[in-house]
Amino acid sequence: MYDLVESVSDLIRIPSVSGDRENCLEALYYMLQRGDEFGFSVSLAADGRIGIIEYGQGSEALGILTHVDVAHAGDYTLWDSPPFQPVVDADRIYGRGAVDDKGPAMAALFAMADVAELSRRYGLPARKKVRMIIGTEQKAGGGDMRDYLLTHRPPDYSFSPDGMFPLCNVEMGSFNVLISFPLETEGQVLRDVRAGSNPETVPEVCKVTLNDGRTFAARGSAGHISMLALTDNAIFNMAEALESLRGRNKAKIRRDTTYRIFRKLKAGFFEGNGRRAGLPGSLGRYKNEYSGENVYAPTAIFRQKDRLFVNINARLSPDTREDQVLTAIERYFREDIVRIDRISSQPASFISRNQPFIKAMAEAYEHLAERPAEYHVDTVGTYAQIVPNSIVFGPTFGDEDNLRHHVNESMSLQHLKYLETLYERVISNIIFLKRSFR
Fold this sequence. Notes:
Elements lengths: L1 H11 L8 H17 L3 E5 L4 E7 L4 E7 L19 E2 L3 E3 L7 H21 L6 E7 L7 H9 L5 E4 L2 E2 L2 E5 L1 E10 L7 E6 L5 E2 L2 E6 L4 E5 L3 E2 L9 H10 L4 H6 L3 H13 L15 E2 L2 E2 L4 E10 L2 E10 L5 H11 L6 E8 L2 E2 L5 H14 L5 E4 L11 E3 L2 E2 L13 E3 H19 L7
Parallel strand pairs: 3-6, 3-7, 7-23, 8-24, 9-22
Antiparallel strand pairs: 1-2, 2-6, 4-5, 5-25, 9-21, 10-19, 10-20, 11-13, 11-18, 12-15, 13-14, 16-17, 18-19
């Protein structure tokens, strides 16, 4: 157990913030080193941006889709301890990546080692392969995994320990749009504005600078867009703070473009469903299964030269088209001469719960959790959207322990060990049996 915690700590210690290629590769190499020490086959793909750790034999492969890049830690002063200096107390491990996705990735690797030990000890032949695919650009849109699939056949079926339990066989689409507005050269009260460090994270701090040189900030609580109920968007709080300006600026600010956009963002997006901004909702059902409710949030705002930029992130049900969202955004901001600058997206995915490999995972979950396996919608956005025949399977149970993208991100040591045990049973349920799980 200590070796698992020590390994997760070592991995957290590498500040592999998405976009920092050098540190992301260092974290990847650390995972490969541990895989090599366990005696597994290790290799690189996608120009070195993807790592592969493989065990077993046969033509059929179970994939485990993980990543070592992490979300930006935001304002370090809000953390009880530095985000990349892991702290282990009697019950928990703290640090950026403990939940997303360094802790689960390492637990899955140790589960592979447990399976290899079972094979050796009891003479059980591994009739299938288990292939861990480790990415370095998941937070940046998953281009590394797409490039990997251009040259490598995907596993026959896969799971990603990058969401919630029990089983998420429907994954909502992720949609990111950067819009901008022209700023007049005269009459502007707000000289600069900045909030947001990751397109999927609700910002915890929003800072503005007035023309008279005064700078002030509005604070909130950061978190992944999939868990809006646990966040407090600093952009909305700044909109409220600007309302309280006094003196000469109060009259002028009402003509300020940036101020007007702040107000519109709060009015249209505060509730999280985008309805007040005219954004499309979800029917809630797809192929006779619950498909989730659409979620929208502004996750960044900043000024560059003569334009104001706003990033809007969304999680979309399979029944919502991206062009519907764009049309609604353009309509809502039509009086502000909005421009669409950049779009990135990943469509929703759906896998039938009747697939044999999903049933094997359900059995493992029910055995250890001692409760029926239910099927849910994942709203986070993972590699499971990109790799065919993949689902999200863990690592957390509901929002109460899902601290991804939060200040003081942490996971209990008991839960970390639970993940290792559960993933070991899943792998064993599949690779030791002769029958196919395709």
